[in-house]
Design a protein that fits this description.
The protein is an alpha+beta fold. The chain has one domain (2-16, 25-112, 133-206). 18% of the residues lie in helices and 26% in strands. It is globular, with a radius of gyration of 20 Å. The model has no long low-confidence stretch (mean pLDDT 76).
């Protein structure tokens, strides 16, 4: 089960170029901001392009920024505003390890210490954040799962979905004989693709 979850997680974050791989985040939110998604060429139809925020050429103008804990929120804020229309706003941010580290370090002044077992908080305290949010968006890191270094993806999940074939929707198949003693194998076929339902939903920040 864990191997299935890890494999699916990796596929969702990659670009779909490997054999039998779905088109993941890197295909739907391209580095160049362009590309073809859902048979719509965003070079021909610019409204379909995703928004790219770059430290080298910030959307807010001005000179290039040296990305770090003191500048990460300035880049995130501009992109977040660009992707917000009323109640429509990013609700999920996937970050590479390095950018997530900068983001957490930028929040250290807000750090609080709590007791982990109901004991004396002074002698039984833990530091750091169990979960991270930026405004209303959950922030997670997953470089080991496929997110490229120096990338941060802003997603409004209201406009993303995984479309699957009705006969191959992760249904557990009959048990297969394994070559490993004492092991059992089950197959979960998936025939589908993640889809974007609205063009302004995604954005990306990079160095």
């Amino acid at each position: 089960m864990n191997s299935f979850k890890n494999g699916m997680s990796t596929d969702i974050l990659l670009d779909g170029t490997a054999a039998n791989q779905i088109n993941g985040v890197q295909a739907l939110i391209a580095d160049a901001g362009t590309g073809t998604v859902g048979q719509i060429n965003s070079s021909t139809f610019p409204f379909w392009q995703n928004i790219v925020q770059s430290a080298a050429a910030p959307l807010q103008g001005g000179s290039a920024l040296t990305l770090g804990p003191s500048t990460i929120e300035a880049l995130m804020l501009t992109l977040y505003i660009k992707l917000t229309r009323g109640d429509d706003q990013p609700d999920l941010i996937g970050a590479s390890d390095d950018l997530f580290t900068f983001f957490e370090q930028s929040q250290t002044s807000l750090k609080r210490y709590t007791s982990t077992s109901g004991g004396n908080a002074e002698s039984d305290a833990t530091a750091g954040f169990v979960t991270m949010k930026y405004k209303n968006a959950d922030v997670f890191f997953d470089s080991s799962g496929g997110l490229p270094a120096q990338h941060m993806y802003f997603v409004n999940t209201d406009y993303f979905e995984l479309g699957v074939h009705r006969d191959a929707n992760m249904t557990v198949m009959d048990e297969l004989r394994s070559v490993e003693p004492g092991c059992r194998r089950h197959s979960r076929p998936v025939d589908g693709q993640p889809t974007v339902l609205q063009p302004l939903a995604p954005g990306r920040a990079e160095t």
